[in-house]
Design goal:
Blueprint (H helix, E strand, L loop, with lengths): L1 H30 L8 E9 L8 H11 L5 E8 L2 E8 L2 E8 L4 E9 L1 H10 L8 H30 L4 H24 L1
Antiparallel strand pairs: 1-5, 2-3, 3-4, 4-5
């Protein structure tokens, strides 16, 4: 059993090392965001869209995604009279669309985030209900990564417990780590 757990521990550690480092780096960006200078670029364009392709916000978004290079999830839909507003977003990019049926024009303002802000958006991306398939793939990878890291910790505790001479110091390290984690979690929810 020890040999099996050691091999599982090693394989999980190798598989999820870069995943864990990605989340560690994005956590640091979240914490120290005020000190970092986020970079981004903005681009505006006007797209002519016929009224038959823009009867609803979803139809208009589909037209822009299929024929005008926008990619992402449809969010924040607002329709007032003959005007439609919405956002098409994905990690690292956000396009705000304002469409007027009277002119048949969609004004698209796209903001492309830099590497650090894209990391943060990947870190906070959640759920499996995205229309943008790469976001669903990332969510699945996040789920697998979380389960893998949990199993990595469980196999590590098993391996530690099998070494009698290291149990005492290991218990102290485990207890301090657990106390620190729980304290940080509680304080982050209170603040």
């Amino acid at each position: 059993m020890f040999r099996l757990m050691r091999n599982v521990h090693l394989i999980l550690g190798l598989l999820f090392f870069f995943y864990a480092m990605l989340f560690a780096a994005s956590s640091l960006v979240i914490i120290y965001r005020p000190w970092l200078k986020p970079t981004h670029s903005e681009h505006e364009q006007t797209v002519r869209v016929g009224a038959e392709q823009a009867q609803t916000a979803r139809e208009l978004a589909l037209e822009l995604i299929q024929n005008h290079g926008l990619k992402g999830d449809l969010r924040d839909i607002k329709q007032e009279g003959d005007s439609i507003r919405f956002v098409i977003a994905r990690p690292g990019m956000r396009s705000e669309v304002k469409y007027s049926a009277a002119t048949g024009e969609a004004k698209v303002r796209t903001r492309r985030e830099g590497f650090l802000e894209t990391l943060v958006q990947l870190h906070t991306n959640h759920g499996f209900w995205h229309e943008f398939m790469p976001a669903n793939a990332w969510s699945l990878l996040s789920l697998l990564g979380s389960v893998g890291l949990f199993l990595l910790g469980a196999t590590g505790i098993y391996l530690w417990f099998c070494h009698n001479e290291e149990r005492r110091i290991g218990f102290v390290i485990l207890a301090v780590g657990l106390a620190y984690s729980l304290t940080t979690l509680v304080m982050s929810r209170i603040a």
